[in-house]
Known about the structure:
This protein is of the alpha+beta class. The protein has a domain at 4-119: Jelly Rolls. Helix content is 49%, strand content 22%. It contains nine helices and eight strands. The protein has helices at 4-13, 18-26, 83-88, 109-118, 121-146, 149-159, 161-164, 169-176, 180-189, and strands spanning 29-33, 38-40, 49-54, 56-62, 68-75, 79-80, 95-98, 102-107. The chain has a four-stranded antiparallel beta sheet. It is globular, with a radius of gyration of 18 Å. Keywords: Kinase, Transferase.
Amino acid sequence: xxxxxxxxxxxxxxxxxxxxxxxxxxxxxxxxxxxxxxxxxxxxxxxxxxxxxxxxxxxxxxxxxxxxxxxxxxxxxxxxxxxxxxxxxxxxxxxxxxxxxxxxxxxxxxxxxxxxxxxxxxxxxxxxxxxxxxxxxxxxxxxxxxxxxxxxxxxxxxxxxxxxxxxxxxxxxxxxxxxxxxxxxxxxxx
Length: 190
């Protein structure tokens, strides 16, 4: 069942009754996204929150010179969205692109609001998820300011091997904020 991963994820964070689990899952719609397809492009308003069932996505922005800046990757059992665009109904600064054939469960803002009314514990679940995402962002900022590029690479590789295995060296280097050539030097030293 496609919701099994979502249910496992929910129960790691908040204990839902069986009935509440079923209701919770009923608000999510499955979507298949082919490799290289965009789920969201800069300038569009993000109208969904997504939970990755399989595959991998790159969440990135592009500056006026055409340079890409990868914020994060979302693989199986991860959430993805542009929270600023989603919450404030403004055009997104981000792109969300499938790096491989992928499947997600999506919920709209309207359905999420209804979900909070229908399954009140869902609000606690999403609050916990939001807090965890803030912690992850804070850790990444601290690491970007305190670790060398080599240390950041080894940390990324150690903590997210399933994601690193899906990426090209260029995508990894972009995420780490280094050049492809510098990443090659780091890998040769290892």
